[in-house]
Write a structure and sequence with these properties.
alpha/beta; 17% strand; five-stranded mixed sheet
Length: 196
């Protein structure tokens, strides 16, 4: 799974960097869990063990001392790719750029980088939407939006109006619908079995 984290609290204290929430201030990280089925019929211990592992990896990603330098490097790479794509879209020649130094001699040694699913844990959104400030309005539902790429799948989780909400978005052209529907039924069953 890949996920994103908010790096806005780590921005410089320049006021111009904080005057708008309309720009992205996020970094990405991966959560790596085993993909094999457990041998035991009792899945609860495996579920909770993998949950703790995901939490541990997420916390480690957020607390690494290399967070800011890593996010800056990722932002530079994403900027270069976006500018290259824009030039290609406009039919302009693209100058070859210096390739980043690789830790691996050839592509076959590289670990796979394709994630199976994106995970967006937005946290407690009641802290953002101040319900008490609008006593005449009852906020009961929140519709999330995503910047999901083609062939992607993204699972959202957050609390809002005192409830846990989970939603799944995916590229309908990238997946067999029956497989996604079965996956979603299984996700909901896990929530019912282990979290209710």
């Amino acid at each position: 799974m890949y996920s994103a984290l908010n790096v806005r609290p780590n921005l410089l204290s320049e006021p111009s960097l904080h005057d708008s929430y309309w720009f992205i201030a996020i970094g990405y990280f991966n959560v790596i869990l085993p993909s094999f089925f457990p041998a035991s019929q009792d899945l609860a211990p495996t579920f909770w063990h993998r949950s703790r592992e995901a939490k541990k990896q997420s916390t480690a990603a957020m607390k690494t001392p290399m967070l800011i330098s890593r996010c800056r490097q990722m932002a530079r790479e994403r900027s270069e790719r976006a500018q290259t794509f824009a030039l290609q879209d406009d039919g302009k020649p693209v100058k070859p750029t210096q390739k980043p130094v690789s830790l691996f001699e050839n592509a076959s040694e590289r670990p796979p980088s394709k994630a199976l699913i994106g995970l967006s844990l937005l946290g407690n959104l009641d802290a953002m939407y101040k319900h008490a400030m609008y006593p005449g309005i009852r906020l009961h539902t929140l519709t999330t939006g995503s910047r999901q790429r083609s062939g992607g799948m993204l699972l959202f989780g957050y609390t809002f109006a005192g409830k846990l909400w989970i939603s799944l978005g995916y590229d309908e052209n990238g997946f067999d619908k029956s497989v996604v529907e079965q996956f979603w039924r299984n996700v909901l069953q896990v929530v019912d079995d282990y979290m209710s």
